[in-house]
């Protein structure tokens, strides 16, 4: 009887401790939510939107052409309203599935005469990519509040989604990491930072619909290509090729999984 009482007492102590820890976690998460809400006022991303709009409408390059008069993002030449919410998608003129940044590179090359190779070759931290990030911020902002509509229908879209899914679960590198290591299970976090469960609709939306986003911690604007690169860095993978099929495939996987959820770009992160 004494032994049973001891066991029950231990169980009660453990339960009380678990409840206390749970309460602390809930309070911490509420604090983080309040912090994020406070950051929404005066999001510095607005400055990048203005820069991106100017880049979109101003003639540039050897051909002195404006993207607004020559670039088709999938809804017609110059149309930006709702375009980001339908990307990545297959484009007939390139016969490729493209995300926003790879499509912008195509437009810059064909319409403006700008060689994309130096932009692609530059490291993600170099200024060569700042033009693309600003354009992505502006164009993505034109889809804010619009539901994601990425439904792989073309065979190349389906193949890209399948590649993205395989890449998400692919384990490699010195620590045998995968995207799924952090984002492949419910209710996980690192240092109180919630990790969205990407295979679910809500989790995918959390990871997709708020990027591009301004990073308060380093004072930088990040596009989705930049965000994927940082995930590769944390997995100790080699730096991915900018606007490559691997990065587009991961975007396709996230975008299609978040289909129907509203875009919230540009976002702001810690």
Automatic annotation (TrEMBL):
Residues 52-148, 164-263 form the Cytochrome c domain. Its main location: periplasm. The keyword Transferase applies. It is an enzyme of class 2 (transferase). Its EC number is 2.8.5.2. InterPro entries: Cyt_c-like_dom (IPR009056), Cyt_c-like_dom_sf (IPR036909), SoxA (IPR025710). It comes from the Bacteria. It is found in: Periplasm. Belongs to the SoxA family. This is SoxAX cytochrome complex subunit A. It comes from Azospirillum oleiclasticum. The gene is soxA.
